[in-house]
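Hey, can you fold this one?
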Amino acid sequence: MKAIIHVTVSALALVAAAPLLAQNNDSTVVQAGSDNGANVAQSGSDAASDVDQNGSNLRAKVTQSGSGADATIDQGVGADGIASGAEATITQQSDATAKIDQTGVAGGASRAIKATITQDANAEGSTASVLQRISTTTEATILQSGTDNSSTVAQYQGHHSAYNEQSGADNESTISQGGSNTVAEVRQSGNFGKSTVTIFGNNDGAYVDQLGESNTSTIYQGASNALADVWQDGADNVSGISQGEQSDAYVTQLGENGTSSISQTFGESARVTQTSLSVGASSTITQTGNWSFHDNAAEVTQNGEDVTSTITQTGSGMLATVEQEGVGSASTILQTGTGHSAVVSQYSDDNSSTVTQSGSGNSAVVTQGTGGF
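Sure. Predicted structure:
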């Protein structure tokens, strides 16, 4: 049996029968279909809530406390283009705004699709938005406890999981997921961080932790079975990862003003570590070739100042390793073919090394200076 409910009342009238105060609270709830539920509780001034539910077995809950809050929940197709499942919860305090939009949802009576936004008393000026469409067993969670943070999650097709936690200040996070069976997790406890995760493949995973100041991370996964992990605990670092099929990339930036770029095609592995003593370090890894499993591996460890590493691998079964200390050293490794190995260690200042390998099965070892870390 379908029920249609349209309610426009103040927050205090929703919560309890109490004398109305001039607090400018508004709430509008529209429901159609069966097993719908809505629970809105507002306290404070200028709070506004709009809940619109259409399909079956949907559930929405909005709780707002503080001034200037705003929340919008929109779920389901209904009448009877049928949407089933879906569950949205918004809890926010202070000057936060939030929006959840779930359209063309699927799932079932268990409400398998979920979206959760939580913004606590310290989240002044923060905004959050979740968009989920044509989804099954999809879940998105946004938690903001800092100041002036912004988070957006958009998920398409099905079987996605997104988690964004912002406890710092002035952070930005954008997660977009298509395909199927993907996971994206972003945690920002530093300040002025920026993270962008874009996944349009299957069985991909992206993980970002930003603990330092003014760090930037960009992850793009365009095929299947890729893994990217970025850890930024320094300041003013930039990481960019672009991945194809069955590749993994790990980036750790603990220093200052470091840059890391990783581009992978099929069956690649790359790891970049810029230590807490590194300043102005730069690493570029490009792993490419035809559309087949390459089994290439590259690893860069930078512990110096203004050091530069460039690794290009075109072919299969190749290994490149670079270690850099000191000041102003540069390393370039170019590998084309199959089965090459190159190891470069630079321990003193102002060194320059270029290794070029073609054909198959070549090995090179370069050591400049003495030391190690």
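The chain is about 0% helix and 55% strand. Let me know if you want another pass with a different chain boundary.
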